[in-house]
Amino acid sequence: MAAAIARFFDSDVWWSFKRSPVTVASAIVAAICIIGAALAPFIAPHNPFDLASLNLIDAFKPPSWAEEGTAEYLLGTDDQGRDMLSAIMYGARVSLLVGLSATLFATLLGVSVGLLAGYVGGAVDGLLMRICDVQLTFPSILVALLVDGVVRAVVPREVHDQIALFVVIFAIGISEWPKFARTVRGSTLVERNKEYVQAARVIGVPKLRIMASHVLPNVVGPVLVVATLNLGLAILAEATLSFLGVGVPPTQPSLGTLIRIGNDFLFSGEWWITIFPGLALVAMVLSVNLLGDWLRDALNPKLR
């Protein structure tokens, strides 16, 4: 373990990371967002979803630096008296959970399909890639809305809230897997004709083992880049679904839900209810996207 860490700090990737101020700043912002979301139950000033602690008298309080603001609520409160800073931290937990889970699901499905299509080829490749082509003609958010709507129509209404989080993860993941499949398939087509793969075939190694043990490790680089960039898109997709009212339930509000709630009061003067969750969403997605751009360049040997 220590040797692996030492090799990493002596690698070109770490050197590229250190010499890019934008990447370092993005990593710091992303770390703040992740740590704040993960530790929200321990470091948040209030529990915004504890009904016993809410007081409607505290509703619509402006940020602490405003004329009527108080130090107790740094970023103000919403229409129910919930502390906005705490609500953002708890909402970021849901957004990150959905984004990471949907990206992991899309990665597993897309990598499996891409490996199979690229290595087997023939009719299997043609069928799987035509499915990808058809799905890529539709916007991802439209596919997610369609899947979410179908599931809600099939599942009984009384269990909607219980499974809403899983439905959103599945809907976003199933709409993003073709990107991974096309990327892995292209890399697999290159790798399957190399000597080490042919040698494995000659000695009788099973196809599944060749794909998992020989081809997969050599196509991980592009997958990491696509996954990093896709994480930001997944978080945005979740925020969009929640803003439209078909995402996570109100009892588990994400940043998209908070923005939707604040949008109702934007023109009545309570701008902080929607602006601060929006800024948190922008910071989170922008930092992840910048890290993805850096990772793409760092793993590209032509740019070294």
Automatic annotation (TrEMBL):
It holds the Pfam family OppC_N. The keyword Ubl conjugation does not apply. One of its GO terms (biological process) is transmembrane transport. One of its GO terms (cellular component) is plasma membrane. The keyword Kinase does not apply. It comes from the Bacteria. It is a multi-pass membrane protein. InterPro entries: BP-dependent_transpt_permease, MetI-like, MetI-like_sf, OppC_N. It is found in: Cell membrane. The chain crosses the membrane at residues 21-44, 94-120, 215-237, 271-295. Residues 92-292 form the ABC transmembrane type-1 domain. Keywords: Cell membrane, Membrane, Transmembrane, Transmembrane helix, Transport. Belongs to the binding-protein-dependent transport system permease family. This is ABC transporter permease. It comes from Neoroseomonas lacus.
